[in-house]
Design brief:
64 residues, alpha+beta, 3 helices, 45% helix, 19% strand, globular, MerR family transcriptional regulator, DNA-bd_dom_put_sf
Length: 64
């Protein structure tokens, strides 16, 4: 988890996965590998909507 303040628009793991079209496990894997930033508490992960939109766009364009 990063020490940075959470962005204004974040989503929990379940909604992050739906937004990008992947499983919740994939979201967790991406966070552990540093592909996306994990915010929230140790018990509740949150992900930046803007980061997710960028990943979805890259996946849609075949670059991710």
């Amino acid at each position: 988890m990063s020490g940075r303040a959470a962005p204004e628009r974040t989503l929990p793991t379940e909604l992050a996965a739906l937004a990008v079209g992947v499983s919740e496990a994939t979201i967790r894997k991406w966070a552990s590998r540093g592909k996306i930033t994990r915010y929230g508490s140790p018990r509740r992960a949150e992900y930046d909507l803007d980061e997710l939109v960028a990943i979805a766009a890259r996946r849609h364009n075949g670059a991710g």
